[in-house]
Amino acid sequence: xxxxxxxxxxxxxxxxxxxxxxxxxxxxxxxxxxxxxxxxxxxxxxxxxxxxxxxxxxxxxxxxxxxxxxxxxxxxxxxxxxxxxxxxxxxxxxxxxxxxxxxxxxxxxxxxxxxxxxxxxxxxxxxxxxxxxxxxxxxxxxxxxxxxxxxxxxxxxxxxxxxxxxxxxxxxxxxxxxxxxxxxxxxxxxxxxxxxxxxxxxxxxxxxxxxxxxxxxxxxxxxxxxxxxxxxxxxxxxxxxxxxxxxxxxxxxxxxxxxxxxxxxxxxxxxxxxxxxxxxxxxxxxxxxxxxxxxxxxxxxxxxxxxx
Length: 308
Description:
Elements: H1 16-30, E1 34-38, H2 47-52, E2 57-59, H3 64-76, E3 80-86, H4 87-93, H5 95-104, E4 110-114, H6 132-136, E5 143-145, H7 153-162, E6 167-170, E7 188-191, E8 197-201, H8 205-211, E9 218-222, H9 230-238, E10 243-251, H10 256-262, E11 269-275, H11 286-292, H12 297-307
Parallel strand pairs: 1-2, 1-3, 3-4, 4-6, 5-6, 8-9, 8-10, 10-11
Antiparallel strand pairs: 7-9
Helix pairs in contact: 3-5, 8-12
């Protein structure tokens, strides 16, 4: 059975979280605007930065609403805050603070999560967050960055910190075998075909490539689903019979509205493949959840072949 996402370091020397910690610490050291707010998660990655800059590396404890509220206050004071913890606590639990302390106040910051949809499946449903990107779609202007490899993280974090808009960086233990894109947000074509344009987001690229082996389809990759490269999507669709498949590591259908709007001036077919909406009352491992949601290579291939 194809497995592209080991949860250890057999393929990848460092995790996305480790890449984030190292680069965020360096940003704090060289940019006096940058502040990091933590909630007892990943504090070991910021030991040196906190010792050198205690005024700009703050741990509020396990108080996620305060985490986002404090980051919003730092943004009002003219800093560029980076707030970090597990995805369900950063986005779902503290969404009111994201809405009010950033959006309503007219400020912006960088929110960096770990855990993704079901990385720590053994931790149970409290640590699952497949709805996070869908929630950000309810707010105007937020950039969403979903790296597929640790080597993509530094450039994406730079883009998030340097930009004026709010940014959500979604880190995961699931990853591709190698990095495939920088931070420009353009769709990168990795395989050419004529029957469909298959867009893989972040860590699902390797599974998508395996699923489409031998099929006459184009496969493209992005680690920047928001804003989605709609011009690139339109171009790929025009070359593949306006048939599009979106393979995303979060809630199925999250990007369907964006893709449909981009193709609204032409007849098109669209298939969304992602985390299912039904709650799986099984914990197991992340590999188990990937299989049960049909996001391993076999599951993606089955959906794609039926669609075509």
